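Hey, can you fold this one?
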Amino acid sequence: MSDKDQSPAIAITSCARKEALAQTLAVEVEARRDDLIDLTRDLIQIPTLNPPGDCYRDICDYLAKRLRNSGFTVELIRAHGTPGDCEQYPRWNVVARREGGAAGECVHFNSHIDVVDVGRGWTMDPFGGELKDGKIYGRGACDMKGGLAASIVAAEAFLAICPEFNGAIEISGTADEESGGFGGVAYLAQQGYFAPARVQHVIIPEPLNKDRICLGHRGVWWAEIETFGEIAHGSMPFLGDCAVRHMGAVVQEMEDSLFPALAQKRTDMPVVPEGAKQSTLNINSMHGGQAELPEGFTGLPSPVVPDSCRMVIDRRFLIEEDIDAVQEEVMQVLRSVEAKRDSFRYELTELHRVLPTMTQKTAPVVETVAKAIAQTLGKDAEYVVSPGTYDQKHIDRIGKLHNCIAYGPGILDLAHKPDEYVGVEDMIDSVNVMGRSLIDLLVQPEA
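Sure. Predicted structure:
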């Protein structure tokens, strides 16, 4: 029976009890501050770089030991046969479940364990997990090992004060979110781990800022364009056909027609930051001619006209757009270039597609977390949509579970940047929001 179905007196008693539990939770969370810091630092110090997929088993073993000690039943699951999975870099995932003392719904916290390349420009050790001025630095600190640590401590603090709760709590650490999630959440969803009969609420602690609820994300279409030419001696380029020049014409046509058109497309989705409220296209990479010379080679490249040039594009589109129209816009660019250039030949290959998704504000997990944000931070939650995709896409499309959001500590703009960090106070606040949400969803009023 929900609070809405109860008499006013019982409803007031229920609210008072849950608020008392929330106050006890806050004390419990504060007592675990040092543990939260240490856990976050430990996770950062495991260099789970993707690609190629380093140390996945190491971090899963670490999490498994921690969660078993907290009374969870733990599974280690390898995503055999998924992209990137091999004996050198197996795609490991960990799923932990703690049953309550009575029947009820399941709340699942899902975090990805992989981090992107370090890149240049760091002043901190990328895998040092250094604590300085209330911030923990390192690759993956905000995206999203701080969120993973916060969800674990939130669950443990909740269990300390509500050991006989109703329902179940699950915590997962999953692979490959940064490269599509096919060896992680997508695989688990295919195996039924996110079926609505098993899990009813999902919170993904991505770093969207502690006062925001992320309802979903824009769509993505990745494709590779290859232009073809004819190899010849570099001193006589007129005897060949330069594929790089052909690709240059493609880029120029994009500059002249496609980019201005995309800038005019706007969405009603609450996408952040502001620039992502329009359709975007990124030239992700371009390779033409000879391969890069091996490191340490001191000779010169040979003089040849390149007969191939490849470009990968990353098109982000809005919920108001149709995927077929997105593809047609790129095809129109290629047809336009073809009409203007002799001997222009190309090939277009789709690499990846994800449709936009957005959970309704009236969904139970949204309303619960919004209430917890207001109670913890003293302000209304902001509803946003992510500019890029994350693993909600697989929970929604494959798992058919639509009661899913992203909520976690960390500043979105720091993701994938040098000197990435997560603030300790932000994590403490997020732990309280997550813990309050567990109280609201899994604690039943006493008669």
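Residues 8-31 form the longest helix (24 residues). Let me know if you want another pass with a different chain boundary.
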